């Protein structure tokens, strides 16, 4: 069987998850390789969540949050971008492909943007190929 | 030829091994001391901010 | 009743943890009288590996291993120690999380050997000779060396009963650990022997302990950029200190000397992946995202002591 990517999307409840909902209501299609995990806020996303997904075999991890100023908890997304940028710097230095982990602000009204972002993410991961970190192999 | 291995060398920090070769009469024919440990500080320090190096290289030997 | 038997093995470490045991000073006399040291290689006792291998399984009450698992000899002796010891303790940050020597995982063995033996300014090695796992000298003397591998913390090789962090563990903490060990008052197996507080919780500079709020860092500074204030929080002033996520069994000695914490104590309880949690903690303490780009050498900072135990455990491609 040909390799199919497995993508984990960690979506904030207030914006990106609603955006995904809207994409469905509006009948926009996006790849079935996407698995959505709902979290209260993108500020809840610890770097450990991303690492755990990659270690367990996800080929890509996508984090979706509210646009700046829109966060339901005021500053969760500001915290998310700082953590994400620092994590990405460290992972890039350690040889992880930076495109495997992405962050995007998608609001509840941007159903189309969600579907497009998922399609682009799926295409990017197909280009990169399977995740070499699966299982967290250390030796 | 008889071979005697002393592994590890004790009462020091750093892993060492001594191998002694005896001839037919039981006299020492040759002896070798090997350092078993290899670390690699020369390489992995590259890229570390200079002010952090002293406290890092103090772990080359802690004794 | 016979004395409990103690074994100690220094794997891929520096001997600093052995010195931390000696640093318990007068208490060392009590400890030495209370236990029977059957093996302490290579630093203290004269027992060899074959003596350890000859001991019956489960005959040693407590085994301590310091240093990470870096070559086939470390791996072999770690397995031997596990089968001989009833309780096995990973002693010091190298054994628990990989330690500074775990930074070897940033490079392949070939790159490390090339730098150390060939490609250094002060090295004269025209034939590019490198250490071999076996060689024959003068056609008749056969010699062997263990094979090198990526560094691993002890618990990736054998089951570990207790963990003690620190580079090296502070002697006051070693005293507490030995007291707990000798009196049998140990936490459940698999846990860290720690008082469970972060460096920040025991730090005199922590504004929260003085009833003041903790502020965001508005700059990123290196310790060469001037000196911190007398009693202010290093992190607030921009000196990236890993105190929030590090065990404070050391009593916060580095921040007291104007030096930011680098995380040698190991992760505070509840944290599995120290480096990632440190990234999270430091990033959330910064005032804005531009500051993230100013952090010099994030890998050498956040993975300093924990690369072999933190995702992705080694550099994937160089």
UniProtKB/TrEMBL annotation, chain B:
- Tell me if Transport is a UniProt keyword of this record: no
**InterPro entries linked:** NiFe-Hase_large (IPR029014)
User: Per its Swiss-Prot or TrEMBL entry, what cofactor is needed?
Assistant: Ni(2+)
Does the keyword Zinc-finger belong to this entry? Answer: no
- Which GO molecular function terms does the record list? metal ion binding; oxidoreductase activity
Q: Which UniProt keywords apply?
A: Metal-binding, Nickel, Oxidoreductase
Q: Which top-level group of life is the source organism from?
A: Bacteria
Q: Where are the transmembrane segments?
A: none
Q: Which family would the database say this protein is a member of? A: Belongs to the [NiFe]/[NiFeSe] hydrogenase large subunit family.
Name of this protein: Ni/Fe hydrogenase subunit alpha
Say which species the protein is native to. Thermodesulfovibrio autotrophicus
């Amino acid at each position: 069987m040909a390799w199919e990517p497995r993508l984990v999307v960690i979506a904030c409840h207030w914006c990106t998850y609603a955006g995904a909902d809207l994409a469905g209501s509006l009948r926009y299609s996006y790849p079935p390789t996407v698995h959505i995990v709902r979290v209260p806020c993108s500020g809840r996303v610890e770097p450990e969540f991303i690492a755990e997904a990659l270690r367990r075999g996800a080929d890509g991890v996508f984090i979706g949050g509210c646009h700046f100023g829109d966060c339901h908890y005021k500053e969760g997304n500001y915290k998310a971008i700082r953590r994400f940028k620092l994590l990405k710097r460290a992972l890039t230095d350690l040889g992880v492909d930076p495109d495997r982990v992405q962050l995007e602000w998608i609001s509840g009204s941007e159903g189309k943007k969600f579907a497009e972002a998922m399609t682009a993410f799926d295409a990017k991961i197909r280009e990169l190929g399977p995740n070499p970190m699966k299982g967290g192999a250390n030796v | 030829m008889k071979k005697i291995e002393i592994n590890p060398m004790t009462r020091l920090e750093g892993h060492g091994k001594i191998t002694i070769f005896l001839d037919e009469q039981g006299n020492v024919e040759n002896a070798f001391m090997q350092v078993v440990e290899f670390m690699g500080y020369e390489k992995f320090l590259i890229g570390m901010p200079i002010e952090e190096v002293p406290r890092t290289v103090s772990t080359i030997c802690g004794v | 009743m016979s004395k409990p038997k103690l074994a100690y093995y220094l794997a891929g470490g520096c001997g600093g943890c052995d010195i931390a045991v000696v640093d318990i000073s007068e208490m060392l006399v009590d400890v030495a009288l209370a236990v029977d040291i059957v093996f302490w290689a290579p630093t203290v006792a004269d027992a060899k590996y074959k003596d350890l291998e000859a001991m019956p399984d489960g005959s040693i009450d407590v085994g301590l291993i310091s240093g990470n698992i870096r070559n086939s000899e470390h791996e072999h002796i770690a397995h031997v120690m596990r089968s001989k010891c009833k309780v096995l303790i990973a002693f010091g940050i190298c054994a628990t999380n990989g330690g500074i020597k775990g930074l070897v995982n940033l490079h392949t063995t070939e790159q490390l050997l090339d730098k150390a033996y060939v490609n250094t300014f002060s090295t004269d090695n025209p034939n590019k000779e490198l250490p071999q796992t076996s060689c024959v000298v003068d056609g008749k003397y056969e010699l062997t060396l263990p094979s090198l591998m990526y560094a691993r913390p002890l618990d990736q090789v054998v089951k570990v009963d207790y963990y003690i962090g620190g580079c090296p563990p502070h002697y006051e903490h070693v005293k507490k650990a030995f007291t707990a060990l000798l009196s049998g008052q140990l936490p459940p197996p698999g846990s860290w022997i720690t008082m469970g507080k972060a460096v920040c919780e025991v730090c005199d500079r922590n504004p929260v302990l003085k009833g003041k709020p903790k502020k965001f860092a508005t700059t990123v500074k290196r310790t060469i950029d001037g000196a911190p204030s007398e009693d202010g929080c290093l992190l607030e002033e921009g000196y990236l200190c890993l105190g929030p996520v590090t065990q404070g069994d050391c009593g916060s000695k580095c921040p007291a000397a104007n030096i930011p914490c680098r995380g040698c104590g190991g992760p505070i309880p509840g944290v599995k992946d120290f480096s990632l949690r440190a990234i999270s903690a430091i990033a959330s303490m910064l005032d804005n995202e531009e500051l993230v780009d100013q952090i010099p050498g994030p890998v050498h900072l956040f993975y300093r002591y924990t690369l072999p135990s933190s995702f992705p455990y080694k550099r994937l491609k160089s």
